[in-house]
Structure prediction request, 297 residues.
Amino acid sequence: MVVPVRLRSLWDRLLAQDDDGFPDAHGAESGPARSGGQFVLGCSTRLDADDVFDNLRQQVSAFAEREGLVFREPTWLYNAFVHSSFVLDYGLDDPTLHFERLEYLGDAVLGKIVAEHLFRALPSHLEGDLTRLRSELVRNATLTEWALELGLDRLVLTGPSVKNREILRSSRMLGSVFEALIGALYVDQGEQGVRRFLARWLNPAVDKAAKSDGQSQQNAKSALQEVMQRDLGATPRYEKRAATGPSHQPEFEVAVTLEGKTLATGKGPSIQKAGFRAAEVALADYLAAQTELDPID
Prediction:
């Protein structure tokens, strides 16, 4: 994908060794923002504006080398670590200059690749198992673990308006940055580049799921109870809703409820298996909702 002209020209200027000025909101050159206070790269590195761009280049380049990432257009990689506060504090209200567009793309790409990987790698797993596992892999808590493992919290570039430094280690921030990195990989290297990058986490997850295949249904009921008690302080209940079919081939429908509200229903050749199925669906739905509604820490 071609880098937008404005984005390329801006980062060429920012990362030039002889940084001779920075365009203000009206396109004029005002020089580096010497009067704009200090910017922060990561959780602890405070930098004067004169040093921030060179430091960003060095740290991001070291990260790419450590992870074996070779970008055709390094601009995308730098863009993945720039928080909107950095752009806005410079007076550049331009959505192409911070990571949120890449985050949007990365979120979609991550979901697609994880879903397809699980579908192909776990051919014997039911839809409920796959949905639950996908939800667990793409939720903010998981992405935060991966981001911290990569040290992304040390690369996020924010402006002085961000006073609370702990936000750089929040699940909302790190989940967003990880998705932006996935977006940058995708536009620069396509799906194959993203798949190679994610393999270190997806392959162990698949191995673990495959080994526990025989216990997956029972685990769904246990996991649902644990999650509901932890998050909502309530215990799910199961009730038979229907029984149909001949005696030699019955089909039961069981509902799982929480404090009188139906979470999901499931069908199966026995009440037990129908209950397992209801638990799988309820757990997958709940985890998917938490992924969408994860609050800012």
In short: The two ends are 34 Å apart (CA to CA). The domain at 5-210 is CATH 1.10.1520.10 (Ribonuclease iii, N-terminal Endonuclease Domain; Chain A). The mean pLDDT is 78.
